[in-house]
């Protein structure tokens, strides 16, 4: 078995898991201003992801560590060339995590509003920039003969990449709103369903445009098939939500994101970082991977521990599967600023 190809698939699987799971976290955070009419609404929304948001983010840590170990050349080029964009993502994630922990430490509305704003920004920035980053990876960037990125941050903000960022932003937003409808009840649940209908229309249009552009420029037979499947699944999720079938809508949205990311990896193959200025400078699965011994050790480690991690995460979701209601939230002690 070609271990470098296997690890290309594993890295793809880990990023798919991260986008599916942390994607709805981002969506819930971005939806706070649209669905949180009062403090109790906002606490209900935050509590839907409270037990799991940090667990979801571990997928990013594992994906980054796997990328570093399995494809050190890819990791070096990506994290040096996209340094500012990835730093912004990191700062946003830190601000978001801090806000979840600190917003309830004081009763003043101004204090809570400040941290709520940080949750919104800390969710929207990664949702946008991850799409920008992956669109640039698929499209290719300027690399020299040593595989160093020779462009600037503004070169990464090209029309195709920005469309990719808008696609992930809307996908995650709709994914999160559907999750809120799945985990809440009453008026908040109904308003979430209505908002998911409106955002779903925009998501379908933007995502279809991005996948079409991707495949017209970089597509392969498999990526075309996967992109078509993602489009069908996204429409299915929209219809399920319209019919108030939130469980089906959430499942179909999760599979939509997974298949869409898989289509990007299919379009990228066999490269891992194409060079837009000279194909000879491109990083491929073969020239970016670690030694066979390293990949062998990693494969055995993954075979042992990954199933345990998946079982634990599945158990966590099962434990916290019940809906969060307004009745379960204590009344705030104060709603005015000090």
TrEMBL record:
<keyword id="KW-1003">Cell membrane</keyword>
<dbReference type="GO" id="GO:0019646">
    <property type="term" value="P:aerobic electron transport chain"/>
</dbReference>
<dbReference type="GO" id="GO:0046872">
    <property type="term" value="F:metal ion binding"/>
</dbReference>
<feature type="transmembrane region" description="Helical">
    <location>
        <begin position="297"/>
        <end position="320"/>
    </location>
</feature>
<keyword id="KW-0408">Iron</keyword>
<keyword id="KW-0479">Metal-binding</keyword>
<protein>
    <submittedName>
        <fullName>Cytochrome d ubiquinol oxidase subunit II</fullName>
    </submittedName>
</protein>
<feature type="transmembrane region" description="Helical">
    <location>
        <begin position="222"/>
        <end position="242"/>
    </location>
</feature>
<keyword id="KW-0349">Heme</keyword>
<keyword id="KW-0472">Membrane</keyword>
<dbReference type="GO" id="GO:0009055">
    <property type="term" value="F:electron transfer activity"/>
</dbReference>
<feature type="transmembrane region" description="Helical">
    <location>
        <begin position="114"/>
        <end position="139"/>
    </location>
</feature>
<feature type="transmembrane region" description="Helical">
    <location>
        <begin position="195"/>
        <end position="216"/>
    </location>
</feature>
<keyword id="KW-1133">Transmembrane helix</keyword>
<dbReference type="GO" id="GO:0070069">
    <property type="term" value="C:cytochrome complex"/>
</dbReference>
<feature type="transmembrane region" description="Helical">
    <location>
        <begin position="6"/>
        <end position="32"/>
    </location>
</feature>
<keyword id="KW-0812">Transmembrane</keyword>
<feature type="transmembrane region" description="Helical">
    <location>
        <begin position="74"/>
        <end position="94"/>
    </location>
</feature>
<dbReference type="Pfam" id="PF02322">
    <property type="entry name" value="Cyt_bd_oxida_II"/>
</dbReference>
<dbReference type="GO" id="GO:0016682">
    <property type="term" value="F:oxidoreductase activity, acting on diphenols and related substances as donors, oxygen as acceptor"/>
</dbReference>
<dbReference type="GO" id="GO:0005886">
    <property type="term" value="C:plasma membrane"/>
</dbReference>
<feature type="transmembrane region" description="Helical">
    <location>
        <begin position="159"/>
        <end position="183"/>
    </location>
</feature>
<dbReference type="InterPro" id="IPR003317">
    <property type="entry name" value="Cyt-d_oxidase_su2"/>
</dbReference>
<feature type="transmembrane region" description="Helical">
    <location>
        <begin position="249"/>
        <end position="269"/>
    </location>
</feature>
<keyword id="KW-0249">Electron transport</keyword>
<keyword id="KW-0813">Transport</keyword>
<comment type="similarity">
    <text>Belongs to the cytochrome ubiquinol oxidase subunit 2 family.</text>
</comment>
């Amino acid at each position: 078995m070609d271990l470098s190809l296997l690890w290309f698939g594993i890295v793809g699987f880990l990023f798919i898991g991260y986008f599916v799971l942390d994607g709805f976290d981002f969506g819930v955070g971005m939806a706070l201003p649209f669905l949180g009419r009062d403090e109790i609404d906002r606490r209900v929304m935050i509590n839907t992801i409270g037990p799991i948001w940090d667990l979801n983010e571990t997928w990013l840590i594992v994906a980054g560590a796997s990328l570093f170990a399995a494809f050190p050349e890819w990791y070096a080029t990506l994290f040096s060339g996209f340094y500012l964009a990835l730093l912004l993502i990191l700062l946003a994630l830190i601000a978001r995590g801090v806000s979840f922990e600190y917003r309830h430490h004081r009763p003043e509305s101004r204090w809570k509003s400040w941290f709520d704003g940080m949750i919104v920004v800390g969710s929207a920035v990664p949702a946008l920039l991850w799409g920008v980053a992956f669109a640039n990876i698929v499209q290719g960037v300027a690399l020299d003969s040593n595989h160093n990125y020779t462009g600037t941050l503004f070169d990464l903000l090209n029309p195709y990449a920005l469309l990719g960022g808008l696609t992930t932003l809307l996908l995650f937003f709709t994914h999160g709103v559907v999750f809120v409808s799945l985990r809440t009840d009453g008026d908040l649940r109904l308003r979430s369903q209505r908002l998911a209908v409106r955002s779903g229309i925009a998501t379908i249009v933007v995502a279809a445009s991005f996948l079409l552009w991707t495949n017209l420029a970089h597509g392969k037979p498999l990526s075309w098939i996967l992109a078509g499947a993602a489009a069908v699944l996204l429409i299915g999720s929209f219809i399920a939500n319209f019919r108030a079938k939130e469980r089906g809508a959430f499942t179909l949205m999760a599979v939509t994101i997974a298949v869409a990311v898989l289509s990007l990896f299919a379009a990228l193959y066999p490269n891992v970082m194409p060079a837009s200025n000279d194909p000879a400078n491109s990083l491929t699965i073969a020239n970016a991977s670690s030694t066979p011994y390293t990949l062998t050790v990693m494969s055995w480690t993954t075979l042992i521990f990954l199933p345990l991690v998946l079982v634990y995460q599945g158990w966590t979701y099962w434990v916290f599967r019940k809906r969060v209601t307004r009745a379960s939230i204590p009344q705030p002690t104060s709603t005015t600023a000090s």
